[in-house]
Amino acid sequence: MTSTHPHPAATAYGRLLDHSNRHNPYPHFAELAKEPVHQLDEHNWLVTRHADITALLRDPRLSAQNPAPTDPDAPLGSDGKPFRGPLLMLDPPHHDTLRQRTMDQFVPRILGMRPRIEAMVADLLDRHVGTGSGEIDVVAALAYPLPVGVICALLGVPPEEEPVFHSFAGRLTRALDPVETLTEQEITQLAVTQRDWRAYLMPMIEQRRAQPGTDLISGLLTKGDPATRMNTVELAVTLGLLLIAGHETTVNLVANGTLALLRNPDVLDRLRADPDLAAAVVEEVLRYDPPVQMNGRHTTADIVVAGQVVPAGDHVQLLLAAGNRDPRRFAHPDRFWPERPGNAHLAFGGGVHYCLGAALARMEGQAALTAIASRLSNPRLVVDPPPYRPNMLLRGPEEVRVGYDAVTT
Amino acid sequence: MTPGRIVVVGASLAGLRSAESLRANGFTGELVIIGDERHEPYDRPPLSKAVLSGRVGSDRLLLPRTGELNARWLLGARATGLDVSTREVRLADGRVVGFDGLLVATGARARPWPDAGEAALRGVHLLRTRDDADRLRGDLVQEPRRVLVIGGGFTGSEVASSCHDLGLSVTVTQRGSAPMATALGGVVAAAIGVRQQACGIDLRARTTVTALNGDAEGRLTRARLSDGDVLDVDVAIVATGSVPNTEWLADSGLAADGGGVDCDSACRALDVTGAVVAGVYVAGDVARWRHPHFDAEPQSFEHWSNAVDQAELAAHNLIHEATDVRHNTALPAFWSDQFGMNIKSVGLPQVADQVVLTQGSFARGPFVAVYGRDGITVGAVAVNSPRVMDGYTALVAERAPFPPAINATDSPASVAVLDAGFARTTPHRAPLTLAADGGRS
Amino acid sequence: MRVLVDLNRCQSYGQCVFAAPEVFWFRGAESLEYDHVPDAESDRATERAARACPVQAITLGPAVEAIVGEAG
Ligand SMILES: Cc1cc2nc3c(=O)[nH]c(=O)nc-3n(C[C@H](O)[C@H](O)[C@H](O)COP(=O)(O)OP(=O)(O)OC[C@H]3O[C@@H](n4cnc5c(N)ncnc54)[C@H](O)[C@@H]3O)c2cc1C
Ligand code: HEM
Ligand code: SF4
After folding, report:
1. Per the CB < 8 Å rule, is B406 touching A91?
2. Between chains, do A111 and C48 touch, taking CB under 8 Å as contact?
3. Which residue ranges does the record assign to the Reductase C-terminal domain (chain B) (predicted)?
4. Which of A395, B136, B283, B356 is disulfide-compatible with B125, CB 3.0–4.6 A?
């Protein structure tokens, strides 16, 4: 990239993409954030500042939908038009219809989840720790199994099916990566996985259509205005989205949160003394080290960003992680400071695509970090920095090994 | 400024917010807050919505305040005069309160029904205060046969919506072609009016109430309309706009009249010659000023965020008068909730001559309309689309060409620029009329 | 506790509703309503709600004594 595009921004961006910088990309984000907008090449732009990203996430001239014409052979969506993909990658109005239907079923079920999530966290920890000193990989033991368990509980998936969901969660996640970062082989593989996913779900969907229960899948199938009801393809894709959008993201939240707490023992102590601090800690983790580092869109019209015209049809990357450290918006941006006032971070995006699972993710993060703080005595990082997974967009450590002296119940 | 005494007249949103900001700006002197309502400051917008509908009690609206405000509150006390030369506020009970700095935040009141006898009938209501809302709600829960709302502005429309929530039959009369047309223009107002009608509201456009009749006990029983109809009604709400509370400023030398108190964009009060009056500031519904972004007459912006923005700005400028005077550049913005619609507005639609639908559909579901004047984007109104407003705010702020290109997936296939449908007022009345009608009439 | 939401800034993300459904609720699809003076039992949930608001539209204040003004 550096050789074909001599822009300094491209160099800085290249360093961001470079895996060897994965453990700490923030100096490179800061370098990029010296300018509000960068043109990477003819049709690609980066936006780095909080105010601009905030406004652009809420701008109808930025589309999340693939601009290519739809595949004429695609199955039809419930709006009678060729199906384009999960609602994350759809624009209004069909996005809004699908999202509203999902929310209608999601909201009442999330409200009661907190005690259940706390119990799941306690249970997972119990399975991996004794009472004496030892070591735990927070990613494998807690962060990884928690979101799948939670989403299965929400969807009403029987416990024996959970391992299957788990395995799909890992494989389907590539669908969230920009298509251009996938190899031919990966694209083919993904298509196969997606087909398998639908085939796997079909009997479950048909069974609930025939005998609706009180679970979310039954609700999506049978509740609400029949005119806007999802068809089977949309339902399978939406369920897949709920599974994967909340998977690695939440893993990263718990892992990044553990790292931040153990690197800031004063905060750890305060959280231990006051579990009510958990809400603020989680918001600050989301700002300081966001699980989703950037968001892509394309322009439907010429737009002005910080005085710069970005033409219609171009691709814009909104660097959420850079905006979260914008000194114009956050005092002492590089400080991990849960009590900071007005923490309007960008970790969950904003506008019509604002994370649908944010409330759930918050509960999971609060429960997990509170448990780590309150149950492990003298916790410390065994390897710092830990190894990172290759993914740049959904950035997070592969493992976070924590040593401790004792465990309280 | 040196710590002396700052007096805030008007103990509501603007008054409380400015008092808090004075402390936040480091003011350590004496703070006196004077208000003629007996209640401590509360939030007004829910009065016509959740309170009338019975979802929130009128006692559950108190505004938060920091513990350290450390102010002397004179509640139930009315200011009746101001002397700028001796720097004194006179109260109705004869007391005189001296000040070094003054904040005028006396807001506005509901415009009364012009016939005092008819206005005194039991069942005839205004809506501006907690007490008004409690009285009106007391009548609404008696299940009146029909409720008459006089005036289809924001307050009138919200009252109609709340009555609809309560399952009551409602008639709304309005002078204009459609509800809220003075603020939104005829095109958008008509779209919203159709939705109100779909909820069963009996909307009477270009219709006025010619008389309210009562029975021998002085209870409202009937209303006569200019369209010849006679309605049997037990409750009528007069929602014909507001009048700024400026009487106490007569003879003060400040430029104050039935349209508000003049101030500049730094909230500094102006005298009748247009000169700044040192140490006297104005904020909220009572303030009339020229917004620097728009080529429009001075007007009052009778919206919640204007009160907050001006209060904070006035407090800052009062304290930093000599060193750091700031000007209000925030674009006007307001919301209204009614009939299942969340309506949001940014900019100044009423200066527009044209309007264009940019997203959604007037007929059903969410929509956004953009307003333009002389080829420049000046405002936007969104129904049930709060998450795209920032994009439109940017268009207004950058004075984007009108009609702006949006090309969203939910944009109409072809761009149809329409006459926005604002009934233009005659020039000599322009400033006053804009002030009265542009707000929450 | 006392609560005030800037409903101009609010974009109806509903995060406050998730965190404290007894204090915040929606009327219709996008219209937020709330109790300005929630009871003390809701304090924790209300604080979580204020933290979670993506646009930081929620202001909290302590449960202070009602003002007893001098009558004029
Ligand atoms: C029913 C209703 C619904 C509303 N809904 C919305 C909405 O949805 N969106 C929106 O943006 N805005 C809305 N508003 C407007 C918003 O409430 C006002 O803009 C805001 O209250 C202005 O605050 P203020 O402090 O300037 O004036 P006010 O709230 O009017 O306060 C002025 C105070 O000063 C007192 N006072 C007056 N004269 C004197 C005197 N001589 N001496 C002592 N005290 C005096 C008054 O009694 C009053 O308490 C609504 C208003 C009403 C009435
Ligand atoms: C810490 C954890 C999480 C983070 C950081 C996160 C982040 C995000 C972000 C940034 C977006 C916006 C994407 C865009 O604008 O293009 C998003 C959307 C989404 N998220 Fe999350 N997410 C998390 C957890 C979850 C969970 C637990 C779920 C579901 C159970 C979930 C479901 C979704 C869905 C369905 C969308 C698409 C919404 C739409 O397009 O309208 N997320 N998330
Ligand atoms: S969380 Fe904030 S933006 Fe969302 S509904 Fe509540 S107040 Fe509004």
Report:
1. no
2. no
3. 334-408
4. B136
pLDDT at B155: 98
- Could you give the domains of chain A? 9-68+94-407 (1.10.630.10)
Q: Say yes or no: B127 and B228 in one domain.
A: yes
pLDDT tens-digit readout, A158-199: 888 889 998 998 888 877 776 767 889 988 998 999 899 999
Query: Of the ligands numbered here, which is closest to the C-alpha atom of B302?
Result: 1
Q: Domain of B123?
A: 116-240
Using CB distances shorter than 6 Å, the residues near ligand 1 are: B 9-15, 34-37, 44-45, 47-48, 78-79, 105-108, 127-128, 155, 245, 248, 284-285, 302-304, 307, 334-336, 440
Give residue A368's Cα distance to chain centre.
16
Give chain B's domain count.
Answer: 3
Our CA-based measurement puts residue B330 at a distance from the nearest CA of chain A, in whole angstroms, of 15
Per-residue model confidence as pLDDT tens digits over B217-265: 999 999 999 999 999 999 999 999 999 999 999 999 999 999 999 999 9
In whole angstroms, what is the distance from residue A60 CA to residue B394 CA?
11
**CA atoms of A389 and A400, how far apart (whole Å):** 12
The predicted pLDDT at position A96 comes to: 95
Q: Do residues B95 and B197 share a domain?
A: no
Q: Judge whether B326 lies within some domain.
A: no
Identify which of B330, B341, B338 has the alpha carbon closest to the alpha carbon of residue B291: B330
Dihedral angle sign, alpha carbons of residues A141, A145, A146, A149? negative
Least Cα separation, residue A89 to chain B (angstroms): 12
Give the CATH number for residue B388: 3.30.390.30
Contact with chain B for residue C3, Cβ under 8 A: yes
Distance A348 CA to ligand 2 centre (A): 6
Domain boundaries of chain C, sorted by first residue: 2-61
Residue B148, in any domain of the structure: yes
Contact C42, C23 (CB under 8 A): yes
All residues of chain C having their beta carbon less than 8 Å from the beta carbon of residue A343 are: 51, 56
B99 and B168 housed in the same domain: no
Q: What end-to-end distance do the CA atoms of chain A give, in Å?
A: 52
Question: Does any CB of chain A come closer than 8 Å to the CB of residue C48?
Answer: yes
Bridge partners of B287, per DSSP, are: B261
